[in-house]
Amino acid sequence: KKKIILGEIMKNKIKLLILSLLTIVVTLNGDSKTLVTEYGYEDSYEKALIKAKSLDKPIMLVLSTKTCPWCRKLERQTLKKEFIKKIIKNDFIPLSIDRDHGVYPDAFKTKVVPTIFIINAHNEEKVSSIFGYKNKKDFKNLLLEASKKYKEDNK
Question: What span, in angstroms and rounded, lies between the C-alpha atoms of 29 and 23?
């Protein structure tokens, strides 16, 4: 009888462990809508294009997926930093789109997520690309380089 009770206790502990792990995975994976709801990113390519043309700024297109842990890491550890948000707000029109379900030009389709394209709104050409997760220091430098390149190309 003790073996049966101990076996049931172990089964319950294993079930609890699996449930806990699933909860952690779902929480970590989240959704790229965080960028739209919390950071004020656009969620429509067409709206971002109109806004970018009117403000003479490039679009910063962030492509991610719901199940991409590196995308969530980029959001949590890089894009949420105040100095990064300030650069983005001042120099870009930020746009977040789910790579698999969003509507955006085929020229920006990619297999790698996260991917960030800096796009000239006037001709819809790529100014620069950032593939994969980048830490805040590297990302800051890449953003500043892209902003500088855009300004030089559009004098």
Answer: 10
Element (H, E) at 33: helix 33-37
Cα separation, 57 vs 51, whole angstroms = 8
- End-to-end distance of the chain based on CA atoms, in angstroms? 83
Q: Is the pTM of this model over 0.90?
A: no
Position 39 confidence tier, pLDDT thresholds 50, 70, 90: confident
Token reading at 31: 């959704």
Token pair recorded at residue 95: 């746009």
Give the three-class secondary structure for 153: helix
d(CA 95, CA 104): 11
* Tokens 């105040």, located at residue: 82
SS3 category, 39: coil
- State how far the Cα of 89 lies from the Cα of 55, in Å rounded to an integer: 12
User: In sequence order, which residues have a C-beta less than 8 Å from that of residue 135 and are 6 or more positions away?
Assistant: 77, 78
> What confidence tier does 27 reach under pLDDT thresholds 50, 70, 90?
very low
**Closest Cα to residue 88, out of 54, 122, 126, 48?**
48
